[in-house]
Amino acid sequence: MSILIKNGRVITADADYTADIFIEGETVKAIGMDLPFNADEIIDASGMLVFPGGIDPHVHLDMPFMGTYSSDNYETGTRAALFGGTTMVIDFILQKQGNTLQAALDEWRLRSDNNCVGDYSFHMAVTDFNDSTKKEIRHFIEDEGITSFKTFMAYKGALMIDDRQMVGLMEEVKKCGGLINVHATNGDMIDYLTQKHRSEGKLSPLYHYLSQPEVTEAEASERFVDMANFTGCPGYIVHLTCEGALNAVRNATRRNQHVFVETCIQYLILDASLYEKDFDGAKWVMSPPLREKKDQETLWAGINQGLVNVVATDHCPFMWEQKKMGEKDFSKIPNGHPAIENRMELLYSEGVAKNRITLNKYVEVACTNPAKIFGMFPQKGTIGIGSDADLVIFDPNEKHILSAKTHHMNVDYSGYEGWEVTGKVKIVLLRGKVAIESNECKIEKGFGKFIKRKKLSQTI
Ligand SMILES: [Zn+2]
User: Fold this and answer.
1) Ligand 1 midpoint to CA 59 (Å)
2) Of the N and C termini of the chain, which has fewer Cβ atoms inside 10 Å?
3) What is the distance in A from the centroid of ligand 1 to the CA of 314?
4) In degrees to the nearest 10, what's the CA dihedral of 455, 109, 315, 396?
5) What's the mean pLDDT in 15-40?
6) Confidence class of residue 277 from pLDDT cuts 50, 70 and 90?
């Protein structure tokens, strides 16, 4: 099977030109002007932008939580991602405290394998680091192709590890050639503030926000960066939201340290005033919470300064009925919001169309950097000869409205209901196959492939 995409404006992290792209099988075979190839299918991309497939390195599909599961499973979540131009996701496996990493991987595979429409990989969340966990790290990196290990400095009593475990894990991960991801917020402080608000009868979603002030994130980010510096282990801060936390990273650069930083689309464009809408604010209850306008400015600037490297989603949807578990107590609201389908279009509309970031920067933070940081470049994350033919054909001018009525995520509300966005995903190719066309998904579950990742080797 071969496809010739004609006359598209090809955008990568460092190039911008009009060309034809010839695809044979799963990969790009040639790029150039007026390519003289016959193909089984010809796609006219005149007037369109052609991006590499988006990579969302932070999603939670079919995630067990308080006796229920996040409402998108691997099929609905990866399909919705494709509709929005994201061809690959990295999901999180959660180790159960007292159990092995392998047991968690086995459990996650039962839910994910043969169920994904788009490509996928996993980060391994280490919630219990001890001598036996330590022995499993090398196997994950070298044999399973899972090279990144997630840690939580919060969620005390469930997911949180202490600094002793963090330093031990960092030493082992560095030795084996991997990377530590961190949820960097101060779990003890948040625990204290949460209990304090509850005991005072302050139970609305607003108090979720007030229990996680900026300092809880700034302090933990600084501590994480210091421990990464001490051990020499590569570090990646997930969902960084605020000025204080980014300043911790900025300070680290003054001693020649580099820590990777991810933010999420919602932190760039939504703010904490949404928590003032009584229980409706539960739609945006996530951790860390939405911040303030000044933090949005910091994050956009951070992208342009090269301090913020990735824009992800932390997609973790729950139906409104599930959110209502916390109607009388904010601490019982399942954390997370749906965005896997909206990230690429929102970032284009709010970022590129509003002149906050360039087209090249857009591709860099949404496609290329995730591939480089997580060991998939240049197979993924760019448009190049020999790379997987994961491509998005995008109309930069078409305006449309985001709504739960039309989205493909399995969740009955949208965090962006009624938003008008400029720019629309028209056609998506995944490994040389047309996946999305005319608002329809053309591939089935099981097409999505688990992508084994390489040891960390790229700098960005
Ligand atoms: Zn998350």
Assistant:
1) 6
2) N
3) 5
4) 70
5) 97
6) confident
